[in-house]
Write a structure and sequence with these properties.
This protein is 61% helix and 2% strand. Helix 8 runs parallel beside helix 11. It is mostly helical and 391 residues long. Keywords: Membrane, Transmembrane, Transmembrane helix.
Length: 391
């Protein structure tokens, strides 16, 4: 602990410096939902709130009816903190965030508001560090803690973008933590991670034990969080089915004028059969890595989604020296992709006018490097797993 303490303080200071200087427009949705749930009593009806307002309503004109597109837990989590801390929010700044975000930086309450609204991410980040410390062998603990403290993935998504994907990383870590001790809690944790964004349900059949049982437990956990909202028209229309699910099928091979092979699905089915017939091929970390390698190699993902992979990459980096250079290649490729998006996802986050948009050619090269590196790690993790089983 003495060795970690100065680094822990440095990591905290870094986060505290970034929190009050960054802002992304998407930050409004979760906080508007949190306000409606905690302060307006819209716990089970917030999805329909905007669609029920007059068309002249300020928020309707700003956001439309389809603002809330994520599962309920993504918004309820923020509502819990809104309920507890609303009294401390600089009120003018909070409503400027919701009503006129372009003027927010001029409000003197802006820094305090950012600290309070991003506090949930800081707490989740700290819990992730604690769980990682429990998961890692003693000889690898310090390097894993340092990697987590300074990894650019979560720092970017949680503190610059203000995105809640850190909660998915937290529940995936709990999935790993519970797996050897309590398989049911492990599957429940995976279901709770899906209750923020449902894609991670594809990992459920890869958990140890019966694949169907694991998928059933995770799926029922996820479904239980949706159940109170199934009667909401807006929820069913805008949030029940993931609006980004079509991205899974962008990478394809055409086999006729209108039919194609979706490469992600081909790879995922291969992984499932591989896991079913040869479960000893990989450790749990290895099995969970494969769909994520596939996903980030073949989809046009949003940059905050890469946070889902951060715990696994941290664990691999800390425990296997031969993964370190490849993981650095993956993270570098990710950073190139970040700078291929519009400026609102990079320099504009800190109110900078600097423009840097990497051309599609170089972004495609970075994606190729990522895919090739992911393929190498797929083979390496298999060999490493065999080596461990023999020893």
């Amino acid at each position: 602990m003495k060795k970690l303490l100065p680094w822990l303080l440095a990591g905290l200071v870094l986060r505290l410096l970034l929190i009050p200087i960054s802002l992304h427009p998407d930050f409004r949705a979760v906080n508007l939902a949190g306000y409606l749930i905690s302060q307006k009593g819209q716990t089970f009806s917030f999805y329909d709130y905007l669609s029920r307002q007059p068309r002249t309503d300020r928020w309707v004109q700003l956001y439309g009816d389809n603002l809330f597109i994520y599962p309920p837990l993504a918004y309820i989590t923020h509502a819990v903190f809104n309920k507890a801390l609303f009294w401390a929010y600089p009120q003018t700044a909070f409503f400027t965030l919701l009503n006129d975000i372009g003027q927010l930086r001029q409000d003197l309450g802006f820094p305090l508001l950012m600290y309070l609204l991003k506090l949930p991410y800081l707490l989740a980040d700290g819990i992730c560090l604690l769980i990682l410390s429990r998961l890692l062998p003693a000889k690898n603990k310090l390097i894993g803690q340092l990697v987590w403290l300074f990894n650019p993935i979560t720092i970017y998504s949680a503190y610059l973008m203000g995105q809640f994907d850190i909660f998915i990383a937290l529940f995936l870590l709990l999935t790993l933590y519970f797996s050897p001790k309590n398989p049911i809690l492990s599957a429940v944790s995976l279901g709770l991670s899906a209750a923020f964004k449902p894609f991670v349900l594809v990992l459920a059949p890869l958990l140890p034990g019966n694949s169907v049982k694991n998928l059933l437990i995770s799926g029922l956990t996820y479904f239980a969080t949706l159940l109170p909202y199934l009667f909401s028209p807006a929820f069913r229309q805008y949030a029940l089915l993931a609006s980004q699910s079509d991205k899974l099928f962008f990478a394809k091979i055409m086999i006729s004028g209108s039919q194609y092979l979706p490469l992600f699905l081909v790879g995922l089915i291969l992984i499932y059969f591989w896991r079913y017939f040869k479960p000893a091929t990989y450790s749990l970390v290895g099995w969970l890595s494969l769909p994520l390698f596939l996903f980030f190699s073949l989809t046009h993902y949003h940059p905050q989604w890469f946070t889902w992979f951060a715990p696994i990459l941290t664990y691999l980096f800390a425990t296997d020296n031969k993964t370190r250079l490849p993981i650095l290649a993956l993270v570098t490729s990710f950073l190139v992709v970040v700078f291929s998006f519009d400026p609102s996802l990079n320099f504009q986050l800190i109110n900078s006018d600097l423009l840097l948009k990497i051309p599609d050619l170089y972004t495609s090269i970075a994606r190729g490097i990522f895919a090739g590196t992911a393929l190498y790690l797929t083979f390496h993790l298999q060999a490493a797993s065999h080596g461990q089983s023999k020893s």
